[in-house]
Amino acid sequence: MNVRSQRVSVRNVADLARAGFEIARQPVTKVDFEVHHALARHGYLRELVTADADGAVFLETLCSATNGAGVVIGTRTRKPPDGTEVVDHDDGRQPAERPQQHEDAWVFHQTTSPNPTFIYESAQTFEGLIAIDPGAREVCEWHGLAVRDLVREISDAASALIDAPLLSLQCPAQLPLLVKTRNHDLRTRKEIASPCASLAVRFAIALRDVSAAARFELADRFRELCEKHGYSFWLADTRPGHRQGNWFEVSHADGEFSPLYKGDLRSRQRISTVLPVTFVGPARIGSTHAIVSFLQRYPQVGVVGCAGTTLSDVAFVHLQLAIHGVAADRLNRILGKLLGEASTPARPHKLLRELFKRLGLPPDPDGPGPAAQDPTGDYQTFAGPAFAYRPFQMPDCMAVWVSWEIARQHRGLAAPLDSLYRALAQVTSESATVEYLICRATEQSVLRGKAKLAVPKSVLRRFASGGVELPASKLCASLEEAWKAHVDQSGVDGVSELTVAWRESWLGHWTYT
Does 415 or 93 have the greater pLDDT score? Predict the structure, then answer.
């Protein structure tokens, strides 16, 4: 037995022991969840989690919004009244879920099996940030192809290069702070917040092999990729005492992009439609890579946004697809008919293949072929509705990061979020959008989360009263004080560690991607 196989064998035994411990602690074989594909608008998440119905209470939550469309995902661990668990038998031919259609959203309710052996929290992670086109003010067709190909490279590096789990994906993402000095004089150092979000992909990979060689191998692969295509590349600062949100610049782009994305004049056109699609199944290595590799077989299909993570040992991979030449009304008409048929499969490759076939999109015969083993063979797919593309107003907004901790309770996310919205109305009198939110159950009785808000820059005028402190810092201090006051007034116990900052690295040290 060679060293690598011996390491894998030991790891499998450790995973099996961990699974046994998790099942013994909480003998649950199913996780209930909701997926909301909605028009990106102010207040949707607040209305959802503060509803009176018990069904609106989420254990763990992921929220993302961009290009005029948003997704809200929430999980709830099933606990039957009699203490027993009903196991659903799946024969592999589960039909696609028919959505509950509302005025501005499609809602999917389903159940899946978790994978308790999947390690989504790791003492060592490899976190990177790759900027494709930071100066873009609208999304073009070539951006979708570039993001799609980049996500495939990232997922391939995780699964094929080091056989490790891909913990998270996020696009668009905020770039690191801009630091300026006059003639390299540190006394003139000035930090400027970058735009709220840019065309960039942020990702994190769990390192099973924590050696320096593994880190260098990953870093070299991404550096070479970025130099080839003209992207900028940052690595997370892993030094002791440096919190998440600090970055080292590895490669700086000069604005010249790869000929791979410059040759087709049609690809320079702005996208017109975005189609949200969410893939859900037991978390395992290689699932994201399998999905994006399948999409690469269709040159007309790009990815213009993504949000991927693991909640309750279940993988959620959300992609915003842009399909060249297909309008939203035609796409929704075909998709609605497809999902209305009882024979439509839920599996990612089967459902997407049928959808693309009805749209008249043949696969590229020269593209990558199907893999021998599909790790998403038991995944479910939730697609639609398509939305008209809406450019994001990033130049007019600033990022405000918030984080919290709450003891697990009946109201769940509603307690801190409702108080936050009340504080925003009091301090800013403006509409702030939740661009990204993640809330995890890190312990059996504790939920911790963080979010990035897009706040109009016009608010800063109220805090520009002179003095040493920056207007952005004054805004965050006032918002944090008002947030704590509203939480106290709400009478909800267990809410703590409330922080607000215009820099992610100033949040609590325990926050997650």
Answer: 415
